[in-house]
């Protein structure tokens, strides 16, 4: 981009392109003479997505950031980890990166549809930090409205129970189980040959299973270690 031939090549590509996507630090494209207005002069209906870490405006716009940092600042890492552990834990995929790309793709589809109807392109300013924050919206609302702090759940689920990864009969063999409702619970108990749990007061419905999840996990683990599930 610094070399005149490189810039000329980019401009040639823009002239035959529908979309330009960049995630440099805010303002870099403008400093290289390739900002949105410059690209519009080449192709008036161009759609441009700018994805700096903190957006194109604001007090943090000049900072550089990567996916792991977006997770931390966006609150995602505070949702990860095992129950009872307070330290933030990063995801396995630096979730801040792919979620921003997914949001950009959605915004682009909307922009392309709008251009089909109006003939006009647009500039999309997509803050990667805001994309990360969006993923914990329910927890933000829970704190703002009810003062409820989100807790690390590990492998558990806010609704389903049981929900987790359990050791099985055999060396280093595991199974993940997710039970969404009481009907599924009854089928699981039948498969595990533990029908008595369907009528047990501590496990008979989903609320009871949530209250007694620790004991339920222990029961399931013991059952799986001694009697493998039929496949």
From TrEMBL:
<dbReference type="GO" id="GO:0008410">
    <property type="term" value="F:CoA-transferase activity"/>
</dbReference>
<dbReference type="InterPro" id="IPR044855">
    <property type="entry name" value="CoA-Trfase_III_dom3_sf"/>
</dbReference>
<dbReference type="InterPro" id="IPR050483">
    <property type="entry name" value="CoA-transferase_III_domain"/>
</dbReference>
<protein>
    <submittedName>
        <fullName>Succinyl-CoA--D-citramalate CoA-transferase</fullName>
    </submittedName>
</protein>
<dbReference type="Pfam" id="PF02515">
    <property type="entry name" value="CoA_transf_3"/>
</dbReference>
<comment type="similarity">
    <text>Belongs to the CoA-transferase III family.</text>
</comment>
<dbReference type="InterPro" id="IPR003673">
    <property type="entry name" value="CoA-Trfase_fam_III"/>
</dbReference>
<dbReference type="InterPro" id="IPR023606">
    <property type="entry name" value="CoA-Trfase_III_dom_1_sf"/>
</dbReference>
<keyword id="KW-0808">Transferase</keyword>
């Amino acid at each position: 981009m610094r070399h005149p031939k490189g810039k000329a090549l980019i401009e040639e590509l823009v002239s035959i392109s529908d979309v330009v996507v960049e995630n440099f630090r805010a303002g870099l494209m403008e400093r290289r003479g390739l900002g949105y207005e410059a690209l519009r002069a080449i192709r008036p209906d161009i759609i441009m997505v700018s994805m700096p870490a903190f957006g194109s405006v604001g007090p943090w716009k000049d900072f550089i950031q990567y996916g792991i940092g977006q997770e931390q600042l966006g609150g995602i890492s505070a949702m990860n980890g095992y129950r009872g552990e307070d330290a933030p834990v990063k995801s396995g995929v630096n979730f801040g990166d792919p979620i921003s790309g997914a949001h950009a793709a959605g915004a682009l589809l909307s922009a392309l549809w709008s251009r089909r109807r109006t003939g006009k392109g647009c500039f999309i300013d997509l803050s990667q930090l805001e994309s990360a924050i969006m993923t914990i919206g329910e927890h933000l609302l829970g704190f703002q409205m009810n003062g409820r702090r989100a807790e690390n759940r590990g492998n558990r689920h806010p609704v389903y129970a049981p929900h987790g990864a359990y050791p099985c009969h055999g060396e280093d063999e595991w199974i993940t189980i997710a039970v969404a409702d009481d009907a599924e619970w009854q089928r699981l108990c039948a498969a595990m040959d533990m029908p008595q749990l369907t009528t047990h007061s501590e496990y008979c419905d989903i609320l009871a299973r949530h209250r007694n999840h620790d004991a339920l996990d222990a029961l399931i683990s013991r059952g799986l270690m001694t009697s493998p599930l039929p496949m």
